[in-house]
Amino acid sequence: MDNDKPLQPETEDEIEIEPVRQSSDKMLYCEAEPPPTVEKVKPAQENSETDLEIEDDEKFFTTGQKELYLEACKLMGVVPVSYFIRNMEESYMNLNHHGLGPRGTKAIAIALVSNPTVTKLELEDNCIMEEGVLSLVEMLQENYYLQEMNISNNHLGLEGARIISDFFERNSSSIWSLELSGNDFKEDSAALLCQALSTNYRIKKLDLSHNQFSDVGGEHLGQMLAINVGLTSLDLSWNNFHTRGAVALCNGLRLDLSMNGFGNEVALALGEVLRLNSCLVYLDIGGNDIGNEGASKISKGLESNESLRVLKLFLNPINMDGAILLILAIKRNPKSRMEELDISNVLVSEQFMKTLDGVYAVHPQLDVVFKAVQGLSPKKTIFLLTNPMKLIQSYADQHKITIVDFFKSLNPTGTMKMSVDEFQKVMIEQNKVPLNQYQVREVIKKLDEKTGMVNFSFLNTMKP
Predict the structure, then answer these.
(1) Residue 461 DSSP class
(2) CA 20 to 30 Å from 383, out of 51, 155, 323, 432?
(3) pTM of the model
(4) What is the gyration radius of the CA atoms in the chain, in angstroms?
(5) CB atoms within 10 A of CB 328
């Protein structure tokens, strides 16, 4: 809600300030640069396009961060937020759900123009609207310290998208992560954002979930992803994409398309995309009503895909038959780079586990996440789930050696690092601490550097 009039503080987080009855267009110029000093010459940013300067016809001065913010609040006619004042020197600033409104947001933006400390700013659900987001992007033209910003659920709409698109086109800030979830963006907003992002290389992570994009928006986004050289993570969950939009989108590197209601028909198209695509590394299509038929189509793509590393299919109506199709497709692809297959709502059998052993033998980097093994005896369950690091620590204690000494003894070179493949092989073959395949994989997860190597140099300080 916009604080057009001064409010009486209702909580301990608010400080009452008597507003200055003055147009927001005429303000005292304040630049936070502690310790406070007096300047009689206007700073060099005289020709800057931003209107976040506080001006006075008679004098220009610099002051501390707190004083600058309080002066801005007077000019905007809003009550200062004491949380903001208390945390000005912290790198993380969480102002979610503070009811700032456009004027409160402008006061915050004025205070952040020269703040060198805050690197992550959360402003979700503050009804900032287009006026507030304009203040923020003007601030970002001057502030090169802020790197991550969340302005989700702020009713930005088409005009807000236009302002952000202009900001993207300038490439003039240090922001690399931007959350824009739930801002009533539709197809025309997608067109604006994508046009700007086609030439923007600074934004690495973008959240556009919970908006109203459909297939036309998906096509705009797909065209942008095909030429964007910077974006590595795009969250488009909870939109309204169908076949055309889903296929167009898969030109990207990392996509979250969960909760879009694709169904098996779109899974057919996704299977074809996976067969041909050489860029996609992460795909989340959880909660999309994809059954065994869809899993079969996706598995066809997995048989030849050489780039995908993570596939999330959680909360789809896939059973063990569909799960087997997926893991066998990965096994048949010697060039598969799959590291994680999430089917964590699927209850599997012991026969599935035996099949999975064969897949792991071909692709030791793979981790398949499933719900549980049905019909497994309590004894076998305990055997499968016993913490392997505790077993190894127990062995080391009995033999009066360190856990690092145990691992070094398995490495022919006696060093702290081994390749994942070599480590898995020696762990299965060693008989000092008998472990099953699943326990070995748990050990690898703890030691894997995600570079194809395991490193046990830090194990002396790690709890089992």
Answers:
(1) G
(2) 323
(3) 0.56
(4) 28
(5) 17
